[in-house]
Amino acid sequence: MRILGVLCLALATIGCEPTSAPPADAAPPFQITAPIEEIMRFMIDPAADSIWGSVVTIVTDDGVEDIVPETDADWAALRGHAVTLIESTNLLLMEGRPVAAEGSVSEMPGVDLEPEQIEEILAANRPAWTALSLALSESGTQVLNAVDARDLDALLVSGDGLDLACENCHIQFWYPELAGQTRATNTN
Ligand code: HEC
Is the Cβ–Cβ distance between 122 and 99 less than 8 Å? Predict the structure, then answer.
């Protein structure tokens, strides 16, 4: 054994160690830094706001002003927001991401669920979470297509679809009481 060990040590640099690569079925080496709450706050919400704010009509005392993307830079920035939004949905799909940081509490108790309640319904309803995350990705792709086609009508329509995709998930996982629904954990 000892001799083998020494031999192995000697040969390690030329490959005596059978493998240093992880087995094919090992979990990918993702590093989770932010909870879902911060993916929402810092990535998804700002990206969506920029998309919704890209086509607006402002009425003032001086008249009506339409804001629409015009320059190449405007469209490029919008593409960036759509891409951020779509790719963020992959972050939502990663297993093991906590809902909120340690000690975080609902800002509207009685309306918004507490993070630990969300954790519970998430664990019990993972397929629904996956479907709703993919639906957000699909809505983001509609926005991206509208941006690439520089189609203002499609941008408006896809912006509405985006809103719905947010709401569909929030009503199930964030504030189900608001919809008068019973908690998903109780029905499953
Ligand atoms: C797949 C589910 C899902 C989708 C889709 C989703 N959200 Fe959320 N969102 C959540 C959950 C769960 C929370 C509650 C997390 C918490 O605060 O504990 C949340 C919280 C938030 C918050 C509060 C974050 C904070 O600072 O406390 C904002 C803002 C938000 N979402 C915006 C959006 C927008 C905008 C969209 C659509 C473009 C969206 N979300 C789509 C699940 C989702």
Answer: yes
* Cα Rg of the chain (Å, integer): 23
Structure tokens at 49: 């706001």
Residues 6+ apart with CB under 8 A from 126: none
Among candidate residues 44, 114, 115, 113, the one with its CA nearest the CA of residue 83: 44
**Residue-wise pLDDT tens digits, 98-144:** 999 999 999 999 899 999 999 999 999 999 999 999 999 999 999 99
Distance 8 CA to ligand 1 centre (A): 53
Contact of 130 with 93, CB cutoff 8 Å: yes
Q: Which residues line ligand 1 (CB under 6 A)?
A: 36-37, 40-41, 44-45, 48, 92, 99-100, 115, 118, 129, 132-133, 136, 162, 165-166, 169-170, 173-174
